[in-house]
Design goal:
With 328 residues, the protein is of the alpha/beta class. The chain is built from eleven helices and 13 strands. The chain has a five-stranded mixed sheet, with helices on both faces. A four-stranded mixed sheet has the order 8-13-12-11, sandwiched between helices. Strands 2-3 form a two-stranded antiparallel ribbon. Helix 8 packs parallel to helix 9. The mean pLDDT is 97. Bound molecules: coenzyme A.
Length: 328
């Protein structure tokens, strides 16, 4: 009998219909399509309407993932919703999604690890499934970041977009599943990407609103350097742990932060770009949702097939980072 591992048995994704193009942004801030395309690779991003919220997209992605897994909502033991843009402070978006799904036997929760949230989520549930503590988990990355973006700050507002992706994980055999996975953080770099308003430190006041403290702030070029190094190093570590090298990998799915970051990570890992997936031109940076959205697109397009060896890697505010090696 082969070892019981945790594997991905169904995926789904969803995003708002609304689109914000670079041409739209040219009308809002001092920028240009040429600048955004050259510096980030982004041409458009999806943007939620005023009355749309995170759990709606998380629920739709989860429903699709459940359908494709062949499981019912009642069979799910835990719902981990990775998000930095929850519906509200309390209750968790995971609990709200649980109610929408009718996953009455699950524990719903949120996980706060910015753009690394999906890898954090699968790393958490991987050991729970492998050791038999639970059977089935839903890991969701869902974000409406455009509601946390300051549309007077051209350094951040051109980057982020909205969407959700979800994966059902369960026990798999025959050498498939998550072969290695690791997450890291370093809070000393908290000033690289943050939103301070609304929490217990600053609270919410006329002053915090006037100072626009509830919006994301980012030191873009500092993020860039640390992101490339961290993602490449942890990817190599996880490949070695799984007994592989980059030459064995069929597909790399990095967090879709910026096309130049993706290219720099690929170059550091010595992987040709035709083995690296990118949808940044159409989606922008959807934070914790970017990897599951990209994975589902690859599964639907046949770029991930049975037997594919896939490397995931992410980096986000915190700072946080991680990597997983998965055999499908
Ligand atoms: N349009 C036009 N000019 C812009 C601009 C925009 N949208 N945003 C910034 N600029 C300007 C700056 O004001 C600056 O002008 P100055 O030289 O006159 O002061 C100049 O462009 C260079 O700014 P800088 O921040 O050094 O640019 P950059 O090459 O680092 O690119 C980012 C900026 C944000 C695209 C880039 O740093 C980046 O992608 N970083 C990673 C961000 C990321 O992925 N975050 C998510 C992590 S999960």
């Amino acid at each position: 009998m082969t070892e019981r591992r945790a594997g991905i048995i169904g995926m789904g994704h969803s995003f708002p219909e609304g689109v914000l193009t670079n041409a739209d942004l040219e009308k809002i801030v001092e920028t240009s399509d040429e600048w955004i395309t050259t510096r980030t690779g982004i041409k458009q991003r999806h943007k939620a309407a005023k009355d749309e919220y995170t759990s709606q997209f998380g629920t739709r992605a989860a429903q699709q993932a459940l359908e494709r897994s062949g499981l019912s909502a009642e069979e799910i033991d835990i719902i981990v919703c990775a998000t930095t843009s929850p519906d509200q402070i309390l209750p968790s978006t995971g609990a709200l999604i649980q109610a929408e799904l009718g996953a009455t036997n699950a524990a719903g929760m949120d996980l706060f690890a910015a753009c690394s949230g999906f890898i954090y989520g699968i790393t958490m549930v991987e050991s729970m499934i492998r050791t038999g503590q639970i059977n089935y988990a839903l890991v969701i990355g869902a974000e409406i970041l455009t509601k946390y973006v300051d549309y007077t700050d051209r350094g951040t507002c051109v980057i982020f977009g909205d969407g959700a992706g979800a994966a059902v994980l369960g026990p798999v055999e025959g050498g498939k599943g998550i072969l290695s996975t690791k997450i890291r953080s370093d809070g000393r770099y908290e000033e690289q990407l943050y939103a301070r308003g609304g929490g217990t430190r600053l609270g919410t006041s006329h002053e915090t609103i006037d100072n626009r403290e509830h919006f994301f702030r980012m030191k873009g070029n500092e993020v860039f350097k640390v992101a490339v190094r961290s993602m490449a190093d942890i990817s190599n570590e996880m490949l070695e742990k799984a007994g592989y090298t980059t030459a064995d990998v069929d597909l790399v799915i990095p967090h879709q932060a910026n096309q130049r970051i993706t290219e720099a990570v690929a170059s550091r890992l010595d992987v040709p770009m035709d083995k690296v997936y990118s949808n940044i031109a159409d989606m922008g940076n959807t934070s914790s949702a970017s990897i599951p959205i990209a994975m589902d697109e690859c599964i639907q397009a046949g770029r991930i097939r049975e037997g594919s060896l896939v490397l995931l890697t992410a980096f986000g505010g915190g700072i946080t980072w991680g990597a997983s090696v998965i055999r499908f």
